[in-house]
Design a protein that fits this description.
With 255 residues, the chain is mainly beta. Helix content is 13%, strand content 47%. It folds into two domains: 115 residues, Proliferating Cell Nuclear Antigen, CATH 3.70.10; 116 residues, Proliferating Cell Nuclear Antigen (Box). InterPro entries: DNA_clamp_sf (IPR046938), Pr_cel_nuc_antig (IPR000730), Pr_cel_nuc_antig_C (IPR022649), Pr_cel_nuc_antig_CS (IPR022659), Pr_cel_nuc_antig_N (IPR022648).
Length: 255
């Protein structure tokens, strides 16, 4: 049986907002350590991994490993029925075909919802690479990274990320215009082991930045041999609750 309670439903609402436009359905793996998810987008270009620590919940009980196959769009719709400050309790019985969500607001109004579980293929993917294998890591204010991706999407479909010396450059080319944003080590925490220049789809990056409300900073890691990593630490009441991490394959030069 699983029983997980959050003091504020707003945190899970933000997590679903960061997932549902990239992945429609996914399996949530619940254990005594917490709740995890790994899923790829339908084009198999991007991978997202989420982990929520058991200690981050107000109450957490899971007596055996259980997998909840859920439609994330429908789950997000149910969560929108809760106020951000409402408490949330998730319950699932072993071998049951549904999960229940209970919201309680400040006036002790109780709202109860149920969702049917889906029988999804449980293909567990390996996280692409050890962090130490990345040649470049950049810690950027998450709102700044969101604005970079949003602004350059007005110019073109892809962004070329160049890292050299003490700066990281984001460049996008359109049919009639070009946009370039340069961040030096005064406004971003950079670790560059090797100069790199790689291109990525801005539609995916803009989807990733929907996790911005979850964290003040984002860590962007690059390598010529591994997927781009975009990592957000999830905070709940200013305490670390878990993380959401996106991986994206680079665009080919002739894309």
């Amino acid at each position: 049986m699983l029983e997980a309670k959050l003091s504020k439903a707003g945190t899970l609402k933000k997590i679903l907002d960061a997932l549902k436009d990239l992945v429609n359905e996914a399996s949530w793996d619940c254990s005594s350590n917490g709740i995890s998810l790994q899923a790829m987008d339908c084009a198999h270009v991007a991978l997202v991994a989420v982990h929520l620590q058991s200690k981050g919940f107000e109450k957490y009980y899971c007596d055996r490993n259980i997998t909840l196959g859920l439609n994330l769009v429908n789950l997000s719709k149910i969560l929108k029925c809760a106020g951000n400050d409402d408490s949330l309790c998730i319950k699932a019985k072993n071998d049951d075909d549904k999960v229940s969500l209970t919201f309680v607001n400040k006036e002790n109004r109780v709202s109860e919802y149920e969702m049917k579980l889906l029988n999804l293929d449980a293909d567990h993917m390996e996280i692409p690479v050890d962090d130490s294998k990345y040649c470049v890591t950049a810690e950027i204010a998450s709102c700044a990274f969101q604005k970079i991706c949003k602004d350059l999407a007005q110019i073109g479909d892809a962004v070329k990320i160049s890292c050299q010396n003490d700066s990281i450059t984001f460049l996008s080319n359109g049919d009639l215009c070009q946009g370039k944003i340069i961040l030096n080590d005064d406004c971003v925490k950079l670790c560059i082991k090797q100069d790199l220049c790689l291109s990525y789809g801005l539609n995916y990056l803009n989807n990733f930045t929907k996790a911005t409300p979850l964290s003040s900073f984002v860590t962007v890691s690059l390598s010529s041999t591994f997927p781009l990593s975009v990592d957000y630490i999830i905070l709940n009441d200013d305490e670390e609750f878990g993380c959401i991490r996106y991986f994206l394959a680079p665009k080919l030069l002739d894309d």
